[in-house]
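Sample pair:
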Amino acid sequence: MLSLGITFAEDSDPAQKAKPVESARPTGTSKSRAKGPVTVTSETLTADNQAHTALFEKNVIAKTTDMTMYADWMLVYYTDPGGDITKIESKGNVKVHKEDKVLTSQEATYYADAPERMVFTGNPRAIDGQNVVSGTKITYFVDGDRSLVEGGSKVIMKNKQDK
């Protein structure tokens, strides 16, 4: 799991670019593959400490040292202020970059509970070099660095000699 610490960046000039407003770090007992702190930036943030959620909207970018996630909208669920992230829902033009791999979809949900995973729906595609995998739903298991493709899966693999 990830530990969440939300700080609010009040901006007197709304036209000014968004500032990092959230950080998270792996806890000592976590098997999370997230490396280093997580920084989320967006144009707007609505935090609800009673519901334990933080809603990031417009040009959302979430970065760790080894992965970057982009979306139009991202809702972070956490156990309590300063607590563990339990789930992250992302919608609209979702894109995840990790090393030379890219996953795209219209929606994605990150689940922190075991097995730690991300579920991509809405025309999901996984691109690794020139190889492309698509289906109705792609589940990426973070701890095992493996994926499950469901619903009309299609794979396009390029031979090295075809490059």
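The radius of gyration is 17 Å.
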